[in-house]
């Protein structure tokens, strides 16, 4: 069950990141975050009311609140990086996010078996290689790498926090709702401050209504990924769930290859293959 939900997480996050990166090429990253997360919060609010999720309120919601503060920083940095650099290079670097939840799992006493350790090593190496050897060069590229590293640290922290935010399904809906409302509040304040400094909130021509379905997809896929990751972490070792969920950069890179025709180098193809092998080792270990 852990492997299934963690792999579902990687698929959902990978597609959400691809969509967010595409939207950020036309719309400011802050606006993408605020609009997509507002839609997700509205849907989750309806779900919480329908399931009486308010009855699950408790101290664990502070983890969701903290995740909601960290999440927008990570998403904004990552969407900007995706807009600046090739997705096939930027996205695999985000696999460094796995270091945070894996470190937490080891600190809490989890000890993966030998086969799982091998799977972790192979999978992480594969995702890193999927980026290809194109990281040096111009200042824009260095800025892109820095933004990606900031995003990776943020995503890893959200991984660790959301896994602690609930223990039941209805509690998970409430935790995700709190996280999204916090995302919107933090992102909205940042967007307001950015506009006050003279930045544009929308592209030329006003709000991109034609892109509303894409905003909805990004927000809902992101929240669904948080949910499946929480389930995966609760039903198995966090170290395994985190590594399998961190394969989302491969999904983003493949989506860029399919939709944007970004060409994959031989080393990137080999890296994707290693990531798959590592996944199989983890799933069977």
TrEMBL record:
Residue stretches making up the EamA domain: 3-130, 144-283
Matches recorded under InterPro entries: EamA_dom, EmrE-like
Keywords: Membrane, Transmembrane, Transmembrane helix
Top-level lineage group: Bacteria
Membrane spanning residue stretches: 28-49, 61-82, 113-132, 144-163, 169-195, 207-225, 237-256, 263-283
Signal peptide segment: none
Protein family: Belongs to the EamA transporter family.
Protein name per Swiss-Prot or TrEMBL: DMT family transporter
Upper lineage: Bacteria, Bacillati, Actinomycetota, Actinomycetes, Kitasatosporales
């Amino acid at each position: 069950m852990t492997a299934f939900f963690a792999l579902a997480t990687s698929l959902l996050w990978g597609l959400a990141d691809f969509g967010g990166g595409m939207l950020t090429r036309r719309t400011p990253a802050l606006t993408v975050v605020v609009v997509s997360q507002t839609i997700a919060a509205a849907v989750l609010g309806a779900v919480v009311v329908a399931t009486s999720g308010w009855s699950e309120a408790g101290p664990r919601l502070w983890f969701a609140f903290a995740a909601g503060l960290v999440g927008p920083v990570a998403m904004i940095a990552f969407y900007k990086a995706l807009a600046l650099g090739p997705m096939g290079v930027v996205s695999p670097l985000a696999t460094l996010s796995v270091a945070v939840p894996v470190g937490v799992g080891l600190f809490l006493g989890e000890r993966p078996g030998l086969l799982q350790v091998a799977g972790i090593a192979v999978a992480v190496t594969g995702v890193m290689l999927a980026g290809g050897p194109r990281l040096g060069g111009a200042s824009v590229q260095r800025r892109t790498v820095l933004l990606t590293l900031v995003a990776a640290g943020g995503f890893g922290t959200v991984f660790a926090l959301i896994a602690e935010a609930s223990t039941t399904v209805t509690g998970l809906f409430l935790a995700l709702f709190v996280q999204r409302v916090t995302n919107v509040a933090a992102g909205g304040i940042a967007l307001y401050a950015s506009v006050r400094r003279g930045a544009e909130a929308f592209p030329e021509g006003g709000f991109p209504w034609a892109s509303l379905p894409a905003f909805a997809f990004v927000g809902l896929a992101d929240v669904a990924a948080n949910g499946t990751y929480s389930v995966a972490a609760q039903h198995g070792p966090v170290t395994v769930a985190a590594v399998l969920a961190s394969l989302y950069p491969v999904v983003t890179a493949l989506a860029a290859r399919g939709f944007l025709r970004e060409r994959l180098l031989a080393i990137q193809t080999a890296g994707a293959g290693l990531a798959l092998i590592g996944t199989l080792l983890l799933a069977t270990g």
